[in-house]
Amino acid sequence: MERWSLAAEFLAFILIITTVVFYHDRKQVKSARKRLFESSLLMTAVSIGLNIAGVYGIENYRQVPHWINAWVNCGYFLVSVWACSMIAAYLFDLLLEHVYVKTCRTRAVVGLSLVNGIYTLLTLSNAWTGLMFWFDAEGAYHRGPLNRLGYGVMLIELLMVMMCYLRNRESVGQKVRKVIYTLPPVVLLLALFQIAYPEILLNGTILTFALLIIFVNFQHSQVEKDSLTGVGNRKDFYEELFLRLKGKQRFQIAMVSLLDFAAVNQKFGYRRGDEFLYHIARWLDEFQKDGRAFRFSNVTFALICPYVDAENSRSLLEAMESRFGQPWSLGETVCKIPACFGAMICEESELEATQVVELLSFMVESAKTKEDGKVLFDREAERMFWKKKHLEQVLQEAAEKRNFEVWYQPIFNCALQRFDSAEALIRLRDPEGKLVSPAEFIPLAEENGLIDEIGWFVWKEACRFVGGHSELSLHTVSVNMSAQQFLNPELRSRMEAVLEENGLSADRIKLEITERVILSDEKYMKQLMRDFSANGFRFCVDDFGIGYSNFSGVMHLPFECIKLDQSLIEKIPSDAQDRLVVRSMIELFHSMGMRVVAEGVETKVQKELIEQMGADYIQGYYFAKPMPEAEVLAFLSKT
Ligand code: C2E
Ligand code: CA
Ligand code: CA
Hints:
It contains 24 helices and 18 strands. The protein is of the alpha/beta class. The strands form 4 sheets. The chain has an 8-stranded mixed barrel with strand order 10-11-13-14-15-16-17-18, surrounded by 6 helices. It has a 5-stranded mixed β-sheet with strand order 4-5-3-8-9, sandwiched between helices. Strands 1-2 form a two-stranded antiparallel ribbon.
């Protein structure tokens, strides 16, 4: 009579049960894959249970009714192979996670069904054929000619998995790759061991090893998930993107960035805010068949889904937009959450994942400033992107090589009827020698943190210019300052050091700041301006009159002068209303003890009108454009 050792199977059973308990403890959102894993665990546990019961029955066949032995063994033969097929199905699902094309998926389903169908039929008919096992007249167990067929099925499934991997390896992630490299050898080794020592039963152990390898790699960790929303996190998004690009697949990415979500948190509290985020993430995740959502950053989500055609992409964007046009409700709480959108199509794209991410971020940023709040990645968007990239490169190079120049635009003093000050304006030349407008590169430098360096360069140049030309009766030069520059705690002492080197007092270089700079941190700026003013520095409000200008914002701050923006000056010759507004503004600022500079004065009429209205200084093309140092020196010495 056959005798078997069940020691390994008992251990495997304990391990499986422990894993089931551990696994059940976790409150996870159950995806189809998780359910498949759970079923594989249970199926393996049942298979080991049946194996143990079967062995007991066979060894005690005189006490156990024959039909029980027959059924238990039949059940064991079936369940052990089914469990193995479930693990194979799980592996297929992992391998094809980043592949939309259905061919391999269909082949896997057909292959697994076919193999299992045939095997099941053969097992069920074993009672008559005895191909797998049979019982003699006394009820003793005997192996049939196809007793090891189960191993054959395992081997076929393993080969199918390997083939699927080889076909799609470009789109298989690092972790799955690791499983593919470890799982088959381990299984094969154990199977060989089993064949060499048939008395030591190992079937359940093999399945348990396979499940443990999967568990360790995938099912126990939440690392790739965003803990708040349960969708993929940024790292996960990168991986998905990287693999799809590497596999040269056709897909599209849609981005949603929530606007002013801080207001939602403020209104309903952070807990509710988090719940809204969860709700939105889940909606996005389920919104498109085969689509997967990711939390890209705090309030920006990305959706990756198959690309069908341009029409479909447009309607996808529209459907998202229309959903975000509707309120979201959580029980009693109902809230509209505005958002902006970007979408991009990748068809055998040559771009790298980091470039795509950069492009997407750029698109979302530009969508924020668009009226309809959405951007579809088209040729125009691509052009803008490459232009920005190019500019960034030029800027970086210029910063390294100090390839900037400072130009000066003279400012006319109406009382003295001569030029006694100038504004320092930075200039950048690209490698072809073309001038790049500061209106284009200053915002970029602010974004990249290069503004500090540029600011220092301008400051030093301006000080050197004023200090080195005392013959010009140039009393002051004004310098434009960005918000970031004020964050440097050593700003004042460093500025003072440069002034001292050039023998200048602080009031010789005026600091021009816009209201936006003040609004970046009102309290801090107020404090800082007081401190600077107390040390002799002078401030000037720049661009007053565009957009968000308001009197109260500048009234309580130590400004010495105010620059009226060109948009205010432009229409004074033609519009009586505008004349009235500008005149009253000048009077008001005078009554507050400030000097008024009119900017962007281009014509004689404008110059005369603004002078009559009482402006103290005039700056504009009418008198002079910004000029390089040598030219401005010549200009000033002539006048
Ligand atoms: P801004 O401070 O308002 O500078 C005045 C801008 O108006 C200059 O443009 C000047 O060339 C232009 N302008 C002067 N008169 C006229 C006129 O009569 N008609 C017209 N159409 N334009 C006139 P620019 O030099 O291109 O500078 C653009 C902006 O870039 C500046 O605006 C300022 O915000 C920023 N910027 C320039 N240099 C610096 C700098 O060193 N640091 C910082 N942070 N920003 C700078
Ligand atoms: Ca300015
Ligand atoms: Ca200005």
